[in-house]
Structures are given as C-alpha cells and as structure tokens.
Amino acid sequence: ALEGASRLARVAPGAGVWFSALALLLAGGCCAAGRGRMADATPTRFLAVALPGLALLVASGLLDPLSLLKEAAQRGPELRLALLRHAVLAAGALTLAAAVAVPLSLLALRRPRLEAALMTLANGLQVVPSIALFGLLMAPLAGLAAMWPPLRAAGIGGIGAAPAVIGIAAYLLLPLAAGMLAGLRQAPPELIDAARGQGMNERAILRHLRVPLGLGAMLGGLRVAAVQAVGLATLAALVGAGGLGAIVFQGIGQLAADLILLGVLPVVALSLCVDALLAAAQRLLMPPGTRA
C-alpha cells in the first residue's frame, strides 16, 4: 500500500487491528493459564507467552510501516530518556514510601492507636485526587526551597520531581503499611509465646518468626505499591517532572493517537514487567512451608 510513497508515509492501525490484538491478549492469557484456571495466568507466564511472538514480529520488519513504530524510531532518544526518568520517579517514590511505612508499621504492631492513626491517614490520602495533591505540595515545597537555598540546589522546589515523588509516595503508604502489618501478624500467637518462653527478644522474634512467615504478605503489598507507582508516575509530567507522561500529554494536546500510545504502551509494559518480577521474587523468597 505504501509502494512509491514518501519515506515518511506510514500506516495507522484501524479498529480491526485493536480487536485482533485484544483477541491475541485473551489467547495469551489462556495459554499462560495452561490447563489450570484463568486465575493461574500469572504475569510471568503471560510475558513468557506474549514477548517471543511480539519480538519476532518486530524483528521481521512486518510492523515497520506502522505509524507507531515510525514515531518511536523518530523519537528514540527522547523515548529512552522518558522511560528512564519514569522508572527513576517510580523507584524514588517507592523508596520514600517504604522508608516511612516500614518503621511506622513496626511501631504500630503493638500500639493499636498508632495503627489506627496510620491506616486512617493512608486511607484518607487515597481519597484526594492525585492532581490536587501535587498542587497542594507545590506551594510548601517552593517556600522551603526559597527559605533554604541548599534545598533548591538539590533540585527540590515547587515544580519538578520533588512534588511528584512525595505525592506518589503518599499514595503508596496504604498498600505498603497494610502488607507490612498483615505480614507481621502471620506468625501464630502461640508460636510467639513459645519463642518468648525460650528467651527470644522482640528483635529475634521479628527476624526469625514474623518476617519469614509474613514475607508473602509483605511482598504482596510491595508488589501492589510498585505497580501503582509506575502508573501514578505518568501524572508526574503535570508538575514538570517528565517521564512517559510528558509524551502522553503531548499527544493529548496535539490529538495525536500515535504519540499517546507511544507513552502509554511503555507504561503498561513496565507495569507488567515489575509485577512479573516481584511475583517471581514473592514465590522464590517465601519459605517452602508457606508456599501455596
């Protein structure tokens, strides 16, 4: 269809292509489940089924005329930089949230009032729209940067990565704290009492009983938070933090579907990869006696 056309000519996929892609995704899910239920179609199995076929299609050159791939080829350096920036934002927010949620969860384990306050705060933050939270953080951070120049020199200000990372981290407190507290309570009370009777202190109980037995729930909370961080990092572009969201919103502003997909598809792929990686880690790190 493009024979004799300009080298800039491209083909945009129609509705039939997307319906076919959806059918292939469903087929991939069925193949990933194997003879089991669809619930057994883990992200790791799905990627193992889908990625080789997709890589073969791209390597064969059959998809080269597609407008999406031409857009990706023209914006290669920009796309790679945006992907790296997106991953850094998500990882930074997850690290900050874990640095707050883990010690607070340990303190709240034996303090019901602190646990109630922590979970109330974490649940309340989920109600606040992310764009509104980013906006609320801009003025205080700008004021702090004006008062202390070292903060401004470190890149902390009203716009940029600082409000984005702090805002995303606020939303990650709930899955991290809930998973941490659930994991710490996996050890049966009679087992804890027996350990205390043998002279084990709370630190030893935490290390040898609570963490090994609750590792599955803890990693489950981390898995939810990590995927949530990748998705929320898309909105970081609204406060000048960059990432793949910048490409998405640029495409929305130009009514360019190819540009929107160029930003959205890597976010979806990154989310699937993070979920698959943490799911595999969850299965490997859990004690053999606690695996389903």
TrEMBL record:
<dbReference type="Pfam" id="PF00528">
    <property type="entry name" value="BPD_transp_1"/>
</dbReference>
<feature type="domain" description="ABC transmembrane type-1">
    <location>
        <begin position="83"/>
        <end position="278"/>
    </location>
</feature>
<feature type="transmembrane region" description="Helical">
    <location>
        <begin position="83"/>
        <end position="109"/>
    </location>
</feature>
<feature type="transmembrane region" description="Helical">
    <location>
        <begin position="259"/>
        <end position="281"/>
    </location>
</feature>
<dbReference type="GO" id="GO:0055085">
    <property type="term" value="P:transmembrane transport"/>
</dbReference>
<dbReference type="InterPro" id="IPR051204">
    <property type="entry name" value="ABC_transp_perm/SBD"/>
</dbReference>
<feature type="transmembrane region" description="Helical">
    <location>
        <begin position="232"/>
        <end position="252"/>
    </location>
</feature>
<feature type="transmembrane region" description="Helical">
    <location>
        <begin position="121"/>
        <end position="148"/>
    </location>
</feature>
<dbReference type="GO" id="GO:0031460">
    <property type="term" value="P:glycine betaine transport"/>
</dbReference>
<protein>
    <submittedName>
        <fullName>ABC transporter permease subunit</fullName>
    </submittedName>
</protein>
<keyword id="KW-1133">Transmembrane helix</keyword>
<feature type="transmembrane region" description="Helical">
    <location>
        <begin position="15"/>
        <end position="34"/>
    </location>
</feature>
<keyword id="KW-0812">Transmembrane</keyword>
<keyword id="KW-0472">Membrane</keyword>
<dbReference type="InterPro" id="IPR035906">
    <property type="entry name" value="MetI-like_sf"/>
</dbReference>
<keyword id="KW-0813">Transport</keyword>
<dbReference type="GO" id="GO:0005886">
    <property type="term" value="C:plasma membrane"/>
</dbReference>
<feature type="transmembrane region" description="Helical">
    <location>
        <begin position="160"/>
        <end position="184"/>
    </location>
</feature>
<comment type="similarity">
    <text>Belongs to the binding-protein-dependent transport system permease family.</text>
</comment>
<dbReference type="InterPro" id="IPR000515">
    <property type="entry name" value="MetI-like"/>
</dbReference>
<feature type="transmembrane region" description="Helical">
    <location>
        <begin position="46"/>
        <end position="63"/>
    </location>
</feature>
